[in-house]
Amino acid sequence: MQKLHLKITTPERVLVDEEAREVIVPTKSGQISILPSHTALVAEITPGEMLIRNEKEEKVALVYGGFVEVQEGSKVIILADSAEHLHELSEKEAEEARNRAETLMQEVRDDKERFADAEAELARSLIQLKLLKKHHSHRHTKLN
């Protein structure tokens, strides 16, 4: 069976560099499913859940924006602003970040730059919490 070669890079690290059967990516046009022999494309990624499927497993990652490029020969390159594997996320830390951001937004209402930073941190923590809650409930029902 033909596979994709997937590489996900952030400014800090290479998150993934492996073969995959399918990659599902959140884009401005909606979620796209990339399979081997997919037509070439470049799309802007929106913050959200990304799925990487192989024959025996499904990996979940959280991507916070960037671009996806599908090249001839089933090569998929994702240049992400930031990205994390699901197992790297902590519900406790995401809750703490949400609380900090909400408090800071109240304190710096008149400082547009600091308010925007706090608002971005709030959005990031809310995405993390949503993904963690979704997959926490699936862990108990997921079949191998």
Describe this structure in words.
The chain is α+β, with helices and mostly antiparallel strands. The protein has 2 domains: 83 residues, ATP Synthase, domain 1, CATH 2.60.15.10; 51 residues. It has 2 helices and 10 strands; from the N terminus they run E-E-E-E-E-E-E-E-E-E-H-H. The strands form 2 sheets. A 5-stranded mixed beta sheet has the order 2-1-9-8-5, with no helix packed on it. It has a 5-stranded antiparallel beta sheet with strand order 4-3-6-7-10, covered by helices on one side. A hairpin with a 4-residue loop joins strand 1 and strand 2. The longest helix has 28 residues. The two termini are 21 Å apart. 19% of the residues are buried.
Characteristics of this structure?
elongated; alpha+beta; five-stranded antiparallel sheet; single chain; 144 residues; transport; 2 domains; ATP_F1_dsu/esu_C_sf; ATP Synthase, domain 1; five-stranded mixed sheet
CATH superfamily of the largest domain: F0F1 ATP synthase delta/epsilon subunit, N-terminal
Main sheet overview:
5 strands, mixed
**Roughly how much helix do the residues carry, as a percent range?**
25-40%
User: Strand share of the residues?
Assistant: 35-45%
Radius of gyration: 17 Å
What is the H-and-E element order?
Answer: EEEEEEEEEEHH
